[in-house]
Amino acid sequence: MKRGFFSHGGFDEGQAGGASPWVSFALLIPYFKRYAMRVLGGLLTLIVVDTCQLIIPRIIKWAVDDLQKGTATPALLARYAGYIIIFAILIGVLRYFWRELLLGFSRLLESHLRDRIFSHTLTLDRSFFQRKTTGEIMALTTNDLSSVQLATGMGLVAFVDACFMGLAAVGFMAYINPTLTLIAIAPMPFLAVFTRILSSRLHNRFKKVQEQFAAMTEFARSTLSSIRLIKAYNQEPRQSERFDAMGRTYVKDNLRLSAIYGTLFPISGLVGNVSMLLVLYFGGRLTIQGVITAGDLVAFISYLFLMTWPMMAIGWVADLFQRGITSLHRIDGLLRERSSLVNSAVGEDLPASFGKGQILIKDLSFYYPSQQTPSVSRIRLGIPAGRFLGIVGRTGSGKTTLCHLLARFYPVEDGTIFFDGIDVNRIPLASLRGAIAYVPQEVILFSDTIAFNITLGRPDASQEEMEAAARAAAIHEEIMAMNDGYQTRIGERGVKLSGGQRQRLAIARALLLDRPVIIIDDGLSAVDMETEHAIIRSIAGYLRGRTCIIVSHRVAPLADAQEIVVMEGGSIVARGSHKDLMDKNAFYATIYRQQTSSVHDTHGADASDQVMNSGTAHAS
Ligand SMILES: Nc1ncnc2c1ncn2[C@@H]1O[C@H](COP(=O)(O)OP(=O)(O)OP(=O)(O)O)[C@@H](O)[C@H]1O
Ligand SMILES: [Mg+2]
User: What pLDDT is stored for residue 470 in this prediction?
Assistant: First the structure.
């Protein structure tokens, strides 16, 4: 199998890497299309509001001119005031509408993107989750999404507002006096250049802030989820300190970011004030010379005031867009991640024979992502349908890896694993997983009722079916002894189960699935050996005719298996029935004797585990 099978790199440098982050804008186009009417309606309302705002200085100009010419009467002034009030009311009402329409759009977009991120993340494979922490993914759905929302909401509003108001104000000013307008806007290009220079720094610093936020989220999550361990090791103060240190870095990064637009805003303000100064000086002279009226000058200054906001907005919008696009690029990176498994499963029409449970492994080798040595190598193994196969081997010998590959958690090369004669890479993932009941080595239970946990894969199972599975896993009696029986809540806000109880619940869950193949990866390590043996026997009886692959680090419980394989350093070093191996394989026979004699010895279990772990015994 080739190394480098997996795509590496962060969300931001994913397959979208190299190109400008703006390519990620394509992600938003469908939403703009879908809500085109809402967005257009909102923008139109916004422009009407802006127009109303632009008309008010004209009314003031008329009033001032009338006053100057002496044609003003109280009735006329009252009429002007009336107009202004009407426009002000109109502005107020329409502002409500554009906010509703445009900010509502950004919220809808945010919610659609969040759903997309969530459901896409669920499709990704293990190699992805090995590269990415939960904190990083969570930061995408919080901080990053909210910067996209801000950019498409307030950012868009401020952008359109600034462009329209800016251009219209310049238009009105030019109508009053073109030369004065040129003088007034002369300082503006400085602002544009300045914003441009700062924006790339803004981009980088913001990226750092987001990364630090992701790291903090992940730290908080992992601390809370392992709180019991942390308490047991008295690590609370240390974890608090570390969190505190991360928080300080976050603040520092944020301050460095603020420092940038801490200069952006004052500079916008300065440019605005310089313009005002120029207008007062040159415009005042033009008024004295009689080129423009006093009303014109007042209106001109009002327009300049209207322009201050767009000028300030340029910096702000640049920042919002920078943040938005940085975040969007990260989101895009995640959405471009593809499960290497789904791609390879070219949905072929499965023959009716599929689902018998026959497995063939040919020359299978596998490297974990970024690992230099194979974790299993050159495995060849035929497992006829209905066979009970045991796998034993030292810790780290590759048992779990082999199970992971059979359950298709990681991609394998073509021609290495066949189910019922079909290459697994040609079987749709859902069909393949639908044929396997898998009990992982580390049990995962939900904080819910016992019934919910057992029927996870078959929510429609009847009470009888559920109880039968629990009986076969030898957990029924213990469940019935609990106060609420199968309705007992377990986990964070319920009953705590022992390690062995958790394992048997997980086995009951898999048994209930009733699939042609069941794989139990060391699923009974937490019960004593005799109980393990009894349960495996019970399971084998319950599963007669199904292909049963049971991994154990103890040998005796697998004695009933039709075939046992011994793994060592990622390879199969011996195989046969219990009897064959006892005769032929020194390693197996030694382990067996030590483990069985230890049953009568109080310290025995530890001793046998030591042999399995010591690496001194050798297979023949
Ligand atoms: N996700 C992973 N990424 C990289 N290496 C891994 C990963 N999981 C396991 N390995 C490595 O692969 C080898 C085989 O591990 P595996 O978990 O298959 O052993 P095992 O036989 O199941 O051991 P145990 O009896 O302790 O469960 C080990 O060397 C281990 O370090
Ligand atoms: Mg294992």
Answer: 94
